Amino acid sequence: MNMNDRTSVVNFLFEIGILSKTPRSGFHFLGSGEQSVSEHTNRVVFIGFAMASIEKNVDMLKVLKMCLLHDLAEGRVSDLNYVHQKYVKRDEVKAIDDLAGSLPFGDDVKAVISEYEERISKEAILAKDADNIEWILSLKEQVDTGNARALEWIKPAIKRLKTDIAISIAEKIMDTNSSDWWFKDKDGDWWVTRNR
């Protein structure tokens, strides 16, 4: 591979654009909400940053790379929800191998994703918890807008959490209305007069 050839890098940048057009399929079955893989990944990165900032003895860069790359294969294999995964085999390893084989930084991509999938390191466990916390947040938003089914879906998602920080965040999510940040000062005059 010519390390100075930028064609593979540009193709990679175009390819990751498809993640913004790849829907997360669970929402179809939930009956409300929608989200692309890119939207999911964006919030997972911020969750990973927050949790790695609070946790001690964690490699922040590694957590962020795992959060950023964890669903990269879905641009090639799509997003399969839990029911789909029961019946359909997708070859994410081949998708990542093919993609990484064309990139000058492909070995790093493969190493990060491989460590994430093994779920042995503290960083991988934290990154997976960030992935699950994002799903819990998305479900809680649906609960708060009236989808009672979403509350049932949250229960197994919370059971998947492994770290104390993720469990404590999930507990707080369940006690917080998803619009509280917006109406932080809802009893103030701003919401009535906007200080006019």
UniProtKB/TrEMBL annotation:
Pfam families from the entry? HD_3
Concerning InterPro entries, the annotation shows: HD/PDEase_dom (IPR003607), HD_domain (IPR006674), YfbR/HDDC2 (IPR039356)
Q: Name one GO cellular component term.
A: cytoplasm
- The keyword Metal-binding appears for this protein: yes
Domain HD/PDEase: residue ranges: 33-145
A GO MF term: 5'-deoxynucleotidase activity
**Keyword annotations from UniProtKB, A to Z:** Hydrolase, Metal-binding
What is the required cofactor set for this protein? Co(2+); Mn(2+)
Enzymatic class: hydrolase
DNA-binding as a keyword?
no
User: Catalytic activity, per the record?
Assistant: a 2'-deoxyribonucleoside 5'-phosphate + H2O = a 2'-deoxyribonucleoside + phosphate
E.C. number(s) listed in UniProt: 3.1.3.89
The source's domain of life comes to Bacteria
What PANTHER family would the database entry show?
Answer: 5'-DEOXYNUCLEOTIDASE HDDC2 (PTHR11845:SF13)
Describe, as the record does, how this protein assembles with itself and its partners.
Homodimer.
Q: What is this protein called?
A: 5'-deoxynucleotidase
Q: What is the lineage of its organism?
A: Bacteria, Candidatus Tayloriibacteriota
